[in-house]
Design brief:
This protein is α+β, with helices and mostly antiparallel strands and 334 residues long. Helices cover 40% and strands 25% of the residues.
Length: 334
């Protein structure tokens, strides 16, 4: 949170994320999720308070995404939802706009939007951090509890019934194990693996995908229980593999997680092709990440091989957008 361009303009930022294991099942509280921040991708929010002629909308929001050559591409379809989210965020901080005040919100992101990389959570966290400055200016409580409450409220606004893992990951800014609504530092060997993130294309709205999976869970409870039990075992295997630096065991767990998501109808032919071509480029395994049916894909690569895999995929026209290396992950000391 920083002030800029005078005392009534503030900025906040937050990184993107990806879920390595456990999505969907973590929503229902039965299986942990393993999630990682993506430091190279994220969102920056600027909020500016200006005086205006009474009668205009008091909240005006614009979203921009980094495009080719560094130019910002305007995303007007996000404005209405952002304005509703901003009104909710102001309420969480107890900020009331006066009749002659207008709040301008500008969001800039280099992360794919609505693809499973946590763009909504990053927006929520960045907005909350920016509003801390405005709250403090007005003598209101600008503590961290309001940031957490704002992210939670906005994630519910965007997704209906989120697990909380996205918000926890972007707020923590470090690898986490998320279980029963609680985030704990993920114990991992530095350099245990590298992950290559790929934009797998358009998907349904996350809220709809979560609802569809929930309906299947209710309709076929025995099948769900078997899959949840198996996935719980896989998450534990992946956790041990990360702690020991066992890349083959980690990749095997990720692959089997992908098989479960495929059974649920959350993979696509395009995602299957990305994973197959990832293997041809040197990846050891991969899966859809997040809500699925398009969107984020994560590939597991050997230490030091992530960039090579990414560039190989790009040479084939596949939009590999980032690599993440396990560096400085918690070893249980904090």
């Amino acid at each position: 949170m920083t002030a800029s361009n005078g005392p009534q303009s503030f900025t906040g930022s937050a990184c993107a994320k990806f879920i390595l294991m456990g999505e969907h099942f973590v929503v229902h509280g039965g299986v942990p999720a393993l999630a990682f921040p993506v430091p190279s991708l994220g969102t920056r929010i600027t909020v500016e308070l200006e005086r205006q002629t009474v009668g205009r909308s008091q909240i005006s929001c614009e979203a921009f995404q980094a495009g080719v050559g560094g130019a910002w591409v305007h995303l007007p379809f996000l404005s209405a939802s952002m304005e509703r989210a901003t009104a909710l965020a102001l309420g969480e901080f107890g900020i009331q706009l006066q009749g002659d005040e207008r709040l301008l919100v500008r969001s800039e992101t280099n992360a794919p939007v609505s693809r499973g990389f946590g763009s909504s959570a990053a927006f929520a966290a960045a907005l909350a951090r920016a509003l801390q400055g405005l709250a403090a200016l007005r003598g209101l409580d600008a503590g961290a509890s309001h940031v957490f409450a704002t992210v939670d409220a906005l994630e519910k606004h965007f997704h209906g019934k989120p697990s909380g893992v996205d918000g926890a990951t972007v707020l923590e800014g470090r690898p986490i194990r998320f279980e029963q609504g609680v985030a704990r530092p993920l114990i991992a060997e530095d350099g245990a693996a590298e992950f290559v993130l790929v934009d797998g294309g358009d998907r349904e709205v996350c809220k709809q995908l979560v609802a569809e999976v929930s309906r299947r869970r209710e309709a076929q409870p025995e099948e769900w229980l078997r899959m949840a039990q198996r996935l719980n075992t896989l998450v534990e295997a992946a956790s041990v593999a990360l702690a020991r630096g066992d890349i083959e065991r980690l990749a095997a767990a990720v692959d089997e997680n992908q098989n479960i998501l495929d059974v649920l109808g959350l993979s696509t032919a395009e995602i299957d092709s990305i994973i197959a071509q990832g293997r041809q480029c040197g990846a050891l395994g991969g899966k859809v990440s997040g809500a699925g049916a398009g969107g984020a894909v994560v590939l597991v690569a050997r230490p030091g091989q992530g960039e090579r895999v990414k560039e190989c995929l790009r040479s084939r026209g596949i939009p590999a957008i980032a690599t993440v290396t396990i560096e400085g992950a918690s070893h249980g000391t904090s």
